[in-house]
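quick one before i forget lol
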Amino acid sequence: MTKDILLLTATMLNLDDVITHLSSEDMEASEDTKKTEGELIAYLNYVLSSITKEYMTLETIERVTSDAECQIAYEKLSKSAVSISKVILCGSSVTFNLYPEYIKVGRPNQEYEVLYYYTPNKVKELSDKVEMPLGLSDFVLCYGIASEYALSKLLYDEAAMWQAKFVNSLEKAKLKGKEKRFYARKLK
């Protein structure tokens, strides 16, 4: 949940007012605290979007019906598509063309399966659920948020430290999901 990630990030950054507000259930936040929490949410969205576009993609498949002009509008897809991987009709992959507003397919009024990469929905509230790639921990996300926050406050050394932790943790998380092969040794 967003609140847990922001609490962990605030703890890393020693943001006492934010920690106090997020830890208590009924305390009202000051304007400065609300502003800081808003900044952290914006950095959360930025970091999560960067991760899912550049490092660890999110992929889904959906059934969508083409219209009379053999088009599937992107707005018919439930998520924000980054790229279209495959279009399937009756279990077979079909050719398609991408246009700025739609996918052009071969047959009108047919149900297709569209396999695509997407970015998660933007987080707006503290109670929103954060959609993360499999294998990505809250800590990796927090390091990225802390780096962006420190950079915005012109704390360059601290930003560089958090950025190094973020990149190292992200590389480790990325490697976890990959297939590992161990080759047999030759016996003499």
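fyi The helical segments are 2-13, 16-23, 31-54, 138-152, 156-176.
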